[in-house]
Amino acid sequence: xxxxxxxxxxxxxxxxxxxxxxxxxxxxxxxxxxxxxxxxxxxxxxxxxxxxxxxxxxxxxxxxxxxxxxxxxxxxxxxxxxxxxxxxxxxxxxxxxxxxxxxxxxxxxxxxxxxxxxxx
Length: 120
Prior knowledge:
The protein is an alpha+beta fold. The chain has 2 domains: 3-43, no CATH class; 51-108, Roll (Membrane-bound Lytic Murein Transglycosylase D, Chain A). The protein has 3 helices and 4 strands, in the order αβββααβ. The protein has helices at 3-11, 68-76, 82-88; strands at residues 29-33, 39-43, 56-61, 104-108. A two-stranded antiparallel ribbon has the order 1-2. The protein has a two-stranded antiparallel sheet with strand order 3-4. Helix 2 (68-76) packs across helix 3. The radius of gyration is 18 Å and the shape is elongated. It comes from Hydrogenophaga taeniospiralis CCUG 15921. This is LysM domain-containing protein.
């Protein structure tokens, strides 16, 4: 058996699959069985949340040479959180967010956390 499959099967219910800072945190796993009887464990599909679920803190105007990881480090304090910028701006392809100079990117709170304009 594939070592990754063995690990996922052994830990599928015992521990979370992904760290709290991962875009996959809270996404469950599922299993399927091949016609040969091999059980395959996989991570369920993650859907990009609707942008309206995010409260805007500020905006960034894309400049030539901007990189999403650098923007995430600057605004969110962690370059690995670039996926939050993707989610907040409804992007499945991270490269599209910095491809057009002058594009406005929303910098938001994490999904579902209301901001001042959302409170009430």
